[in-house]
Amino acid sequence: MTEEALKDLLYKIADDLLILGHRNSEWTGVGPLLEEDIAFSSMAQDKVGQSLAFYNLLHELGEQDPDTVAFTRNADQFHNSQFVELPIGEYDFSLIRHFLFDHADYIRFSMLADCPIEEVAQVARKLKGEIKYHVMHANTWIKQLATANEEAHDRLQKSLDEALPYALGVFEPSKFENEIIDAGVYPGEKAIEEQWKENIALVLDQAGLKLPDWDTVKPVYGGRYGKHTEHLQPLVEEMSEVFRVDPTADW
């Protein structure tokens, strides 16, 4: 497998985590409940820290240092899916995004834990344990709120319907997909997507939420190749503000 293919894989993982971590941090101080304010803030911090682990791997492969990579690129240089850059919206949307994304990442890291590149496998094994608790948190709140009352159920269903096309964009195949699969790094995006569909269906069924016929859902692709919504560049500028003022500041 070429180094370029590995870098592409690491960038999309790292950028997803960094951008969603900053998005979820916007709930700090405004969460619907104190415990959820704290939980979302904590998980957002986890994601930013997880992104650092992958930027460090990229640095070892010759890319610039993590701060430079994270805070000096423009939006069109990011490899994240469009799903993670969307505004936080109301809590129902952020909870659905948290649920859909973390289920996908748990599967991804479970697969990467067996990666023949030991440095990648070590990071995946470590982060898999953290994300397991994120998934448990999301599952718990999806079930509790979806069965709480009709309004909560309907709001979650609406957000689920709106989020699914973007969520499928998380599995946008890389131009190096076959190369990565043939090298045994992981089974590929399609394999992650299929397992993800099974896993979320089990939880959503318990919550009384309905998935559509997948054939009717058109994935929103483009993010992996630098095509983003109008929401990403302002977020990039905001999250890099401290670095621009003080490049020596620590994460």
Fold blueprint:
Blueprint: H1 3-24, H2 34-60, H3 66-71, H4 82-85, H5 91-112, H6 118-146, H7 150-168, H8 177-182, H9 189-207, H10 232-239, H11 241-245
Helix pairs in contact: 1-2, 2-6, 5-6, 5-7, 5-9, 6-9
Summed over residues and divided by their number, the pLDDT gives a mean of: 93
Number of DSSP strand runs: 0
CATH topology: the name is Ferritin
> Over the alpha carbons, how many angstroms does the gyration radius reach?
17 Å
Q: Class in CATH?
A: Mainly Alpha
| Largest sheet data | none
Strand coverage percent? under 5%
CATH architecture: Up-down Bundle
User: Distance between the terminal alpha carbons, to the nearest Å?
Assistant: 32 Å
**CATH superfamily placement:** Ferritin, core subunit, four-helix bundle
The SSE string, one letter per element, is: HHHHHHHHHHH
Brief characterization of the structure:
The longest helix is centred in the middle third of the chain and has 29 residues, at 118-146. The chain has one domain: Up-down Bundle (Ferritin), CATH 1.20.1260. It has 251 residues and is mainly α.
Description of the structure:
With 251 residues, the chain is mostly helical. It has one domain (3-210, 221-245): Up-down Bundle (Ferritin), CATH 1.20.1260. The chain has 11 helices and no strands. It has helices at 3-24, 34-60, 66-71, 82-85, 91-112, 118-146, 150-168, 177-182, 189-207, 232-239, 241-245. Helix 5 runs antiparallel to helix 6 (118-146) and helix 5 packs across helix 7 (150-168). It is globular, with a radius of gyration of 17 Å.
